[in-house]
Structure formats: structure tokens, C-alpha cells
Amino acid sequence: MDSVGNIIIYFAVSIMMIIFSIMAVTAKKILRAATYLLFVLIGTAIFYFQMGYQFLGAVQIAVYAGGIMVLFVFAILLTNKPNEQDAEGKRYRRIWGLVVSVASLIILLFALFYMPLIHGFSLVECLSASNLITMHDIGVAFTGGEKFQYLLPFEAISVLLLACIIGGVTIARKD
After folding, report:
1. I need a labelling partner for 149 at 20 to 30 A (CA). Which of 69, 81, 158, 170 fits?
2. Would you say the C-alpha torsion 148, 154, 156, 157 has a positive or negative sign?
3. Checking phi first, is residue 119 left (phi over 0); if not, alpha (psi -120 to 50) or beta?
4. Strand, helix or coil for residue 45
């Protein structure tokens, strides 16, 4: 990513993703928010392609931009009429949402920096001691089945998404 063209594409896609992310969060209609999220996911795939990870870019488009967004839109249309006007959220709901969001962010950051990730070292320890972590170590951490590895949660989420799809199809066929 050293040519001027790649740098221009990077900044253009970054700005596009920031704008569509804000629009997805602030959209009043849920289908529009889902569409804006689709553009953010496609922007992520563009980054993968730019870095030379064609497989990850293809998976990003096929799984997230394709499958997950179809699932979201399907769930939205099953549970909500597209033209139905939602009542404005009350102020206390927004305040509680903000409080829960900030608390979740603090817990997430704490877990990110202090949970043992690779070889029993936390991110803070790895950064401060300048430990060398290879791509192989990161791959094993994400796809391994031992403690603090993520294969089991990944498979659980895939089974959950499959159950959601089957449930949605079942509900849709009952009409």
C-alpha cells in the first residue's frame, strides 16, 4: 500500500466508512440503517483487498455483506413493517443506553488490554516488553480450541446464526 493511488483509495474508503457508520447509527428508519451498515461492510472488504488478503475480502463480502445483511433485513421485515412510524425514544431510554454503552466500552477495553491472549501474556505485557508475536501465534489464538482461543465461540455463533435463519424461514412460511 505504498503507491499514491492506494493511499487515495484508502482515505476515500475511510471517509466513506466513517460517514456511513454515523448515518447507520443516526438513521431514523431501520432499513436505511441496515443499508448504511452494508456499505461499511463493503468498505472493510475493500481494505482487505487493498492489503492483498483476497480470501478475507471475498469472505467479508459473501458472509457479512451478503449473508448477515440478508439475515438482518429479513429479520427487520419479519418483525417491523417498513412504513411503520416508530415512536421517538424517551429521554431516559437514551440516557440508560448511553450509560450501558460507556460501561460496556470500559469493560471491553479492560478485557482487551489485561486478558491473557497469547502464551499467557496480556496485550499490555506484550506491548511493554516488546515480545515478538508472529502471525502463526495470532492464527492459533483465533482458531485453537484451548483456553483463551476462539474456535468454540466462533462455532457457537455459527450454530446460533443457523438457528436464526431456520427460525426466520419457519415464521415466514406460516403466513
Report:
1. 69
2. positive
3. left
4. helix
> Is the backbone of residue 120 left (phi > 0), alpha (psi -120 to 50) or beta?
left
Query: Do the Cβ atoms of 60 and 49 come closer than 8 Å?
Result: no
Buried b (16+ CB within 10 A) or exposed e, 56-87: ebeebbeebbeeebeebbbbbeeeeeeeeeee
Phi-psi category of residue 174: left, alpha or beta, with phi > 0 → left and psi -120 to 50 → alpha: alpha
The dihedral formed by the CA atoms of 19, 33, 94 and 96, expressed in degrees to the nearest 10? -100
**Which set of grid coordinates corresponds to residue 116?**
491473557
What are the pLDDT digits (tens) for 102-151? 998 898 888 777 777 666 777 777 767 666 666 677 677 767 766 666 66
Which grid cell sits at 57? Answer: 475480502
Instruction: Please give the single-letter amino acid code of residue 92.
Output: Y
pTM (whole model) above 0.85: no
**Contact in structure between 42 and 34 (CB atoms under 8 Å):** no
Q: Per residue in 5-54, pLDDT tens?
A: 888 888 999 999 999 999 988 988 878 888 888 899 899 989 888 888 88
